[in-house]
Amino acid sequence: MDHSYLYSTRIQNTFDEDQAEILFIFKKELAKCPKFKITLINYYNGLPVSCPAHIVGIEKDMIDVDVAPYQAYTMGDHHYTFIRSDVLKHDVYAHVQYVNVDRRAASLRKLCYVEIMAERRNYIRLTLGKPQAATFKTKEGRAKGKLVEISINGACIEVDSPCSLAIGEETSLTFMLHNPAQNVDYTMNTHATLVAIDEEPLPQRYRFITDPDKILDRTIAKYLLQRQIEILQEIKTATERG
User: Fewer CB in a 10 Å sphere around the end CB: N or C, the chain?
Assistant: First the structure.
């Protein structure tokens, strides 16, 4: 799945020149301090996971790092991570070439300066454990899709075919939310504005800003809290097996 919506590139010269600069900086720091400390950031099902890591070696365009098991598990999800360090002018996006949770090791390459746009959000946005039925109003009627991500003031709907709704248009959005504690599904209705359409092959993802009332706001907040607990438990179980 495309995760480019999480960041915006901040190319300073060219990609190759920027990568060479990043590698040079890390080599210089590694020469002064073996196992140079950095911070890695991932968004696992939308939940930010950030742990310290240590650079242990650099070979050509590849950086080898010691990582925490939690971070290694989340890095393996979409094979990317963000690097943060005081010695860098910007955060850095890195492709995860190799990762092993048990060995607490990873290899990173394809380094690029970026700004992490996900950090600009006012509210956390999480991926649902199971997509839920959703519809929204268009000129042709109600388009059907699946709710795949949600926040207090936003929703992402996956649709099998494009519809006439244009970016900036307002609509009414209806979706289901499952309450695992009571094992019931709630039908939610809210005003929404389309703000983005992910440029992916079908199915496409339509991203909305929503304006929930107080009751819906509380319901979503409870769901997000429960979902965070589920995600953390998944990571904990996966990294503590055996």
Answer: C
